[in-house]
Amino acid sequence: MSFTVLPFSRDSLYSSLANRFATAEYIAARSSDFLQAAYLAGYLERLGAKTILVENDYIDRDYLTDFASYYVTCFEKYDSRCKRLHFFSSTFDTASFERWIRRRSDSDDLALQKAYLGFIVARPLPQTIVGRTALKTYEPDGAIDRRYRTLRTYEVNLFGLPLRVDSLAYQQQDTVVAACATVALWSAFHKTSELFHHPLLRPSEITADANTVQGGTRAMPSSGLRVEQVCAAIRRAGLEPLAQSVQKQTLLMSTIHGYLEYGIPVILLGRVEEFSYSGHAITVTGYALGAVSAPIGEQTLANVTSIGRRIQKLYVHDDNIGPFARSVPVAVPVNAPDYVSDYAPFALQAQDANGVAQATFVPSVFVVPVYPKIRITYSEAHVWAGHLRQMFGFAGVDADGFEWSIGLTSTQRYKTLLRNRAAASVEDATRLTEGQPRFMWHGLVKRGPVFICEFLIDATGVSRSCPLLSLVWHDTPTEVIFKSGVSKFSKVAIERIYSKLFADVVYQ
Amino acid sequence: MSSPTPSDDQNVMSTTSETAENDARLTEAAQQQIEDMRRFLELQEVTEENLALLISI
């Protein structure tokens, strides 16, 4: 039969993933070798999975490209076909499903769509069985403000039944055509290809692109990538790699927040304590925001208290664990070598679906694949926000309780946001019709629930010449204090210190 | 049009002097911050040690 319907359980998941190299019993017995399968079982339990539908003969384009690049030339006869496992939060059997696909009914289609949780491609490989995976994220929880900013919609056609799932693709490295850095890039490209319209590359293609820069070892079997190779793969995709070292002062959470606001995944490269601080890569897909500052996080720079300080955990695609894995900031391990502890502001402790601690990852470098016109970095935008913060202080504005949220946006998104505001002001209407850069950093300044002001920074410009475009006030008492305070300084002095453009904006 | 009185002149001089003092204060503090920020941005270059890191697990 071309498909199988099973009630969901850990055992039925393992049997659905199993192949001739790895039986369900083998997967269950060797959970340390199949961490991803165990994680997915827990994740799907929490999503409320009730039924698995297995497409028994599925051609997966990613696996097929990898198969053609490597497996087809092996002596062992690897299969070219996969299985695709679909998960539903409703209970049904084979007869019901056959009836649904033979006779179309809008209400049945809608019910299946409502119950659809996503899919996993099971590869016919000895150990690295988890292929392309797109699963729903957890529903909003009153206690946790989960923000998955990098999702895209995957269209699925199941025997003529159209289904959709909002996710970001994940897969396990196969350690042959793709090591962890390759699959971290592959996940990120799934979103950036939608944002910036570049071709969606397969893992073997990414590894080949990365190896246009020599890494000191052969391309395949891939034993890993170096930072320069990660950057090369991003350039070959038509994007630019923003790569920066992680230092004690690095605004890592704010940077992640800033790029994720536009949907761009951030790739973290670092070292794993449990593997003698060997190199590993993860893709940040979202974060959880708390009501107060996280106990461990980034420092404050230039008195700009960033929303990033409230990030309590990250959601990451970690190919050693699974998709949307929770990653909690913790202190750098005390046994870490100096070359780690001297730089890292914190470590990230990955958790399985049940919250059990897994490996401890210490970030060393972050890489953001950006469209070439996005030139001003988050850090540079933060520095200009720092200058604005300093002017607030000199003008007599009590800005100690302000929280600054700076996120990347585009002129289209920003104007849509303005139009969606309940009551567009005259100033808003003016900004709707004026020309703007394609990409901007949008800063929002708040004190608790009070919206103080917002500002725009030209992300396509030149940092030194002041890319600050505008400052719009939303709190009249603060605006009055600021304008009165600024008038105590000569505009010429502000021009001389910062720039003419900066003076024009603060004196408007 | 009335000409400025001695008292008006004193007020203008006082305001000018106060603005100059404010400008000097702002300049000093801002230059320190600009220098701090320049160092902060410089530190973000990917180090040789990190460039050599093999991402393999």
Q: What are the salient characteristics of this protein?
A:
heterodimer; A: 508 residues; alpha+beta; Cathepsin B, Chain A; 6-stranded antiparallel barrel; 5-stranded antiparallel beta sheet; 17 helices; 32% helix; globular; B: 57 residues; mainly alpha; 2 helices; 72% helix; 4% strand; rod-shaped
Note the beta-strand portion of chain B.
under 5%
What distance separates the N and C termini of chain B? 83 Å
The profile of the biggest β sheet of chain A is: 6 strands, antiparallel, barrel
pLDDT average of chain B, as an integer? Answer: 82
Descriptive account of the structure:
The complex is a heterodimer of chains A (508) and B (57). By secondary structure, chain A is an alpha+beta fold. Among the domains of chain A are: 240-370, Cathepsin B, Chain A, CATH 3.90.70; 378-506, no CATH class. Chain A is built from 17 helices and 20 strands. In chain A, helix 1 (10-17) crosses helix 3 (35-47). The radius of gyration of chain A is 25 Å and the shape is globular. The mean pLDDT of chain A is 94. Chain B has one domain (11-51). Chain B has helices at 6-42, 48-51, and one strand spanning 54-55. Chain B is rod-shaped and about 80 Å long. The chains are: A alpha+beta (508), B mainly alpha (57). Strand 9 of chain A pairs antiparallel with strand 1 (54-55) of chain B, so a sheet runs across the interface.
